Amino acid sequence: MMADMDVNEVEVVVAHSERATLRVGDVFVKVDADQNRIDVEVEAMTTAPVPTPRILWRKPPALALAALPGSALGRLGEPSAASPAAWAAAGAAVRTLHDAPLPPWPGRSRDEFASRLADECEWLVAHDVLPAEVVTRNRRLAETALRPWTPVFIHGDLQVDHVFVAGDEVTGIVDWSEASRGDAHFDLAVLTLGHPEHLGDVVAGYGADVDHDLVRAWWSLRCLTNVRWLAEHGYGSPDGFPEVAVLRSQP
Questions:
Q1: Which of 86, 115, 106, 122 is nearest to 156 (CA)?
Q2: CATH number of the domain located at residue range(s) 70-249 in this protein
Q3: 79-93 pLDDT per residue, tens
Q4: How far apart are CA 51 and CA 164, in angstroms?
Q5: Using one digit for the tens of pLDDT, what is the confidence trace for 145-165?
């Protein structure tokens, strides 16, 4: 969300059958077919105790947000140019969010995760996306994440490119439509997915006990349950997905 674009240029940031995000100058316009997601996003941004984009206006089905200064912490599948201190600052921001009062709406249950995990693993094997042994190995690992947890206020989709930094400071976190109550390790896993070299930096900034094995388990679960959605929404062949590379690399 850099502020250097010609105001006359329209950039399609994200576009698929469920939602689209357009950028015009320093304004981002999100159009979502599901107004519940927009409701959650607005409430989460107004209550989360971390920097978020300024809401300019809302007129269903659209939401306009001001650009954030700085640049994304990184991109999935690409090396991050951000400093270890910036990654640690991201961890500290996540801890602030997790220490906040719970949002009033629930998140996904362990049963919901388990059901989707089973369905997606079957799809991956049936469509020969990955060898059965890779799916089985990752499924066993993913299932260890589905233990009882104490819920916290989670972002719910804390991809590395949803965290913006300037230097070593977090300037804002975007895309709050999946915010809910959930497992703290889930946010930490999504943030560090594909960037295991920065897990230590994030945990240092987070400043609390973090089970690295649970983070790795959520890496497997996140990847196993995302591949089909990406394939069916026009993101290319699964062979090129960073998520598939993560699944192949998991021990």
A1: 106
A2: 3.90.1200.10
A3: 999 999 999 999 999
A4: 10
A5: 999 999 999 999 999 999 999
